[in-house]
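Feature request disguised as a bug: please show the residue count (216) next to SAM-dependent methyltransferase in the output. Example input:
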Amino acid sequence: MGARLDAVLARINCRTLADIGCDHGKVAVGALLEGRAERCIATDISEKCLQKARELARTKGVDKIEFRVGDGLSVLTPFEADCVVIAGMGGREIASVLQKAPPLKAKFILVPHDDAPLLRSFLAENGYGVESDRIVSEGRRFYPVIVCEKKGVKRSLSLLESLYGTHTSDADCAAYMRLKESSLARICAGIKQGDERGEKLREELRATSEALKERK
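Example output, currently without the count:
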């Protein structure tokens, strides 16, 4: 499965799982095979996109899975799922999907492949309580795995939490922070003083460097 999907599966324990934008269907099929969900709803934007998931379910002998074509969470009825996985989209796209969601009392497991700070800010501003937000490494890439639930209470985020989540002491997060520190240093070196974008990036660099120094 890989470290990213293993981390997602480890957080699933529900009656009805909705795997939104399911791609190959590995999360839905894996959750059923491991007994982490009683039934699954696997969705994607087109019937063609769902074919790989259908084939995997057939190959693995999984039948408690329903396939639906549709955009985001629009294919779910209110309160139908008690756990929702959205992996493989960008942070901006995930935020857009959540914004248009029907009423759901569900745990959300979100794995953005970019724009994670934007998604974290959206969650805080829109009343999502975060249970866990860890960075997971797989090969040369790093993925945030965010577990949250709509609580209705807005939160404020520190810059560090916005950039790296809630588990900055984890080894994978530290490795990602070192990579980010190096990248930010290169970018900032090429930006003139007084540039608004440059000041924002320098602030991110300072916060990252200070957090890494505290680990030593």
